[in-house]
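Reply to dn_fold:

You asked what the input looked like. This is it:
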Amino acid sequence: MQKLLIVGCGDVAWRALPRLLRRHRVFALLREAGDCARWRAAGAVPLVGDLDDPASLDRLAGLADRVLHLAPPPDRGDRDTRTRHLLAALGRGKSLPQRLIYISTSGIYGDCGGAVVDETRTPHPESARAVRRLDAERALRAFGRETGVAVGILRAPGIYAADRLPLARLTKGTPALAAADDVFTNHIHADDLAAACCAALVRARPNRAYNACDDSQLKMGEYFDRVADAFGLPRPPRLARAEAERTLTPLQLSFMRESRQLTNRRLREELRLALAHPTVDAGIAAARQEQQERKSACSS
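and this is what came back:
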């Protein structure tokens, strides 16, 4: 059985774990010792280490045949020092992993004016977060070229699930852009991204990027409207862009400045991934059903 190291043990990694355990002995790099019991009980071997502390990563050298890297970059600067620390640790081993899969962001494309975007689009990141993600991609690809490790990159857009819907935003009544000013947004259900990770570990081509998105072609306001309708909440009020610039926070506005429509042909044809939630509508319906089942279980 091959050994696999998960770096970045958040929600998507947790969703992927049952599938990964079918084929691998899984090691989970955790920042907090208090998280070890949960991951050990689920079948993983926990390791305590911090990507911001290179000395804590010595045990990673030569440890794994495959690496699934989901850790975010630091929250400042223009370089992903965490990915660089990870690669330095892996490179110190007598043996290197055969394959490394990294979860990046579709934000590396920047604003595309609503154009259809495939993986050949020249990156033009506009946010600091996306600049650091692109730095990670470039460091990983250089590592792959220099060492022969097969590096695959999944560029994920907005990740959603039953417990990751904008219900609080809708309840609060935070506005969305008016239809004339609205932007195209892209989505992937967290379970489908977890499945994409598992598929990429088997089928991703070396130094190849994949848009990890579903089939939906929605504008941001339409997404909010559909969630609101499904959960019986008011649709968000709409603002013209000029008014939104005056009233919304910089963080809220940052998600309204970029418009693109991702294509997922490589995800479907090369990784051969059949999406469990091929559209946002399907994912929202599943989330609504899950909520109703929870309520029914609690009342019985």
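Residues 2-217+255-289 form a domain with the Rossmann fold fold (CATH 3.40.50.720).
Hope that clears it up.
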